[in-house]
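Assess this one:

_____
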Amino acid sequence: MKKLVIVFLILLVSCAESGTGLVDANSSGYIFGEQKVMIGSDKTVEVFKKIDKAWLERDYDAIRNLVAEDARLIFANGDIGEGPEDLIQLIENEYQQSIENNESWAWDSYAFSVKVTPTDDQIANETGEWVLAEFWTEESNIIEWYQIHEEKLISWNQFRRNRK
């Protein structure tokens, strides 16, 4: 049995060193060059769920705690913001607009987390993990990418399609 364990460990190390090990087995697709996509963690999805809950409840103190001061924010209309205060302004504007248009301030959603395989170049997208979330209401479909590192939002991209 001891010999079998040693042989398994040798094979595991040799596969990892040759680039055909667990990373390749648990990844697919491509991003930049040789980067591939892997499933992320539930921990990252839980951070996203905190952000989503704070957004729905307009809990701006929670948003300030969950969004990095230098977070890069790209809004569906093309505007670019930075940090929690810009995100709070977007949330408040969307909320006020929903009231004016007599729209519901609620949504259905799904989300999952991914991460990229590391490179020697240390590309910015390797920091933390990414959550892809889609939201839908009677009025629109919204797709957002959340880059989360050390339990903080550090980058966010929003895409929107009106349904009406």
